[in-house]
Amino acid sequence: MDTMRERFISSTTRLLDEDPRLALVLADISADGFRPAARAHPSRVINVGIREQLMIGVGGGLALTGLRPVVHTFASFLVERPFEQVKLDFGHQGVGGVLVSAGASYDWPAGGFTHMAPGDVALLDTLDGWTVHVPGHPDEAEALLRRATPGDDRVYVRLSLQSNEHGRPVDGARFLPAREGRDGVVVAVGPMLDHVLAATEGMDVTVLYATTVRPFDASAVRRAIGHGPADVVIVEPYLAGTSTAAVNEALADVPHRVLGLGVARRELRRYGRMEEHLAAHGLDPAGLRDRIARFLGAGVSR
Amino acid sequence: MTSTRLTTIRDGAPGRRELDRLTALMALMTGDEKHGPAATSTLDALWVLYDRVLRVSPETAASPERDRFLLPKGHGPMAYYAVLAAKGFIDEEVLAGFGAYDSPLGHHPDRVLVPGVEIGSGSLGHGLPLAVGTALGLRAQGLDTPRVWVLIGDAELDEGSNHEAMAFAGPAGLDRLHTLVIDNGSATHGWPGGIASRFEAAGWSAATVDGRDQQALHSAFTAPHPGRPRAVVARVEPKNA
Fold first, then answer.
1. Residue B30 reports pLDDT greater than 70
2. How far apart are CA B35 and CA A31, in angstroms?
3. Quick one: which of A67, A79, B24, B72 could link to A120 by a disulfide (CB 3.0–4.6 Å)?
């Protein structure tokens, strides 16, 4: 199976053929993969070199002329380094674009912390009007990308090497039910789904699958909890707690408890492999099962 | 240099009257003394651009074929607003509300609120990258007529984002792109070797002129520069003089 990033390259190459309004801005990352696209569309595939502030500014400038920019590099350099450009060159200008990142939170642990961006979604949460897609499979990445490119809005697509085994029919808006149960609700974001399903095997919980986290599908969570007091766990492949505010807002008028699981804020300062980092953050099935069971068990006595 | 040098606005024209008009318009905006000198430093260059160079009017402010003028150096926008009022983009009446809660005119301009304003600005270093993207976007759509102008200050040139844009635009051959640098000597560490040389080293066509000499500005603005972006450095009286 290809990776989400490889699928991004192949599908965007096709989209550039199909949609004359689409333009791609790169800062050397993935430039090799886009070489055929650059040959076919030299004026709409723009590699600015290793210049991330310029990359975002160019995206905003392209949008000001009516084009639809897709802007891509590693998450650290796409969202964190030029954050003020993301804020001003899109939002403040009142224009849109599609930011597509690779690298995510722990895709390349041997590369160290410089190439990890667990805070990207939390950062975008400080801005208005960004749709955030976190696909859990290359098929979903392609589907979400195809939904994003025709619009005029601001969209972030977060790609990762971590993937679920099977893609699901995501629609770019709603959370999908993955399991029904009565003792609580677990929201699994993107590539966390397989681990969450394994972790909750045998538990009587509802599992919701979220690949579009902003806007947050509050109605899906409300439906899932029913009427009574609610216990909600949200498992995200980025900074732990990023979406607990969204859950709280969704359940503002219902007594509830929320547990936010994800990547720890504290720098792990370890190299190694993705699996080792998932275990260290308690995001492997065993770690998740332990923490979800303790949280829901603690709720029983309430 | 003093304002008494602002007498030769155009060939044989009674420039004094136009300048007095702009000065009167600027006087309608009050309460921004901090940005006062920055505002007047751009006045001559802005007027020459809007009066004689830019192909844009209130009627064509939304046309894809219009020339674009981007002002990232949002500080001291009084001259900009005065020129926009003189050219009919905004009503003179709104000038008096400058900076007020219900005014469209802030101390930094907002493209969403002011017709003819191409970018919302204030944070230094955003305009030139946006201008590069605008030039690329026009080129990609086969819009070969419109020219893109961006005005920055010599201190704004300190921002690294501008250097990313300068270094890219030269080799990319963005000959529809023009940068006007108002040099009032306000960069903390200065630009040894001169500002124009930085652009030239990046593959731009560049010239340095007296920013109060409207004829010299016009000549520099309209000089041909095939295959290369153009930078015009307009020297004005030092900020702290």
1. no
2. 43
3. A79
CATH for B151: 3.40.50.970
Can you give the pTM of this predicted structure?
Answer: 0.94
> Are residues A110 and A180 part of one domain?
no
**% of chain B beyond a pLDDT of 90:** 79
Least confident of A118-132, A276-290, B7-21, B149-163: B7-21
Whether residue A51 and residue B119 make contact (CB cut-off 8 A), yes or no, is: no
Q: What ipTM goes with this model?
A: 0.95
DSSP code for B217: H
Tokens 């600015």 found at: A48
Here the tokens at position A205 are 């919980």
CA-CA-CA-CA dihedral for B99, B102, B108, B109, to nearest 10: -130
Nearest by CB: A67 against B135, B140, B160: B140
Domain of residue A258, residue span: 176-296
Residue of chain B whose Cα is closest to the Cα of A51:
B164
Q: Does A65 sit within 8 Å of B64, measured CB to CB? A: yes
Pick from A113, A115, A114: nearest CA to A269: A113
More confident residue, B40 or A20: A20
Residue A271: give its domain's CATH number: 3.40.50.920
**Yes or no, beta carbons of A60 and B130 under 8 Å apart:** yes
Q: Which of B108, B126, B145 is most worth mutating to test chain A (most A CB atoms within 10 A of its CB)? A: B126
Task: Pick from B164, B174, B177 the residue to mutate for testing the A interface (most A CBs within 10 Å).
Answer: B164
